[in-house]
Amino acid sequence: MSAAAAQKYYENGIRLLKAGKLPEAEAAIAEAIALDEGKADYWVKLGIIWSKQQRYQEAKDASQMATTLQPDNGDAFYNMGLAQVHLGEFDSATRAFETYLTLNPTKAAAEALGDLFYGVNNAKIAAYYYFKARQFDKGDSELQGKLAKSLFKDGDTGGAILLYIDLVSRYPTSRKYIAALVDIYRRFDHSDFSPLAHKVLLICLTTENVKYRY
Hints:
Radius of gyration: 23 Å
Strand content: under 5%
Largest sheet: none
Number of strands: 0
């Protein structure tokens, strides 16, 4: 009986969460947990609610409880990592996300983590996850551009240049990639002649409204 009642509270809490009624959703999920505290999904949703309320320590604790109850619950590890990012615990967050990716090894998951870390100005970890995402699809130009931006922001100008050179060679009419390459070329000197770089530089020089002095 308690399990059935807990499920009803849980389902009501989900509806309230989707409606944006966070205090009411929290109360409903808390009732569900009081009746059946062994359900990992209940703790996951409580953690999500607390995250939305910017109560990140509590969100982290709820997600930790969920991972203890169900060690293969990917959502629990993702939400725990997200809370840790907001708490500034980047090393712990990365460990949580690594477990999440092990349980959910997809390009979309890795790219989303790259976006998350780039959004909090941690370019090094963002580049790490964009690189992992590229292992699933090296032909994705948008993803390659994200990786290049992260590398450049992290100080790896050479790595960023190589990626942008490849993008401009593949998309010689893309002003976005040309502008990005030209902008960072002012910080880079070639130590060796590169036929591909020469070809790309000619593309840049024949493109209008480019900062040629770079």
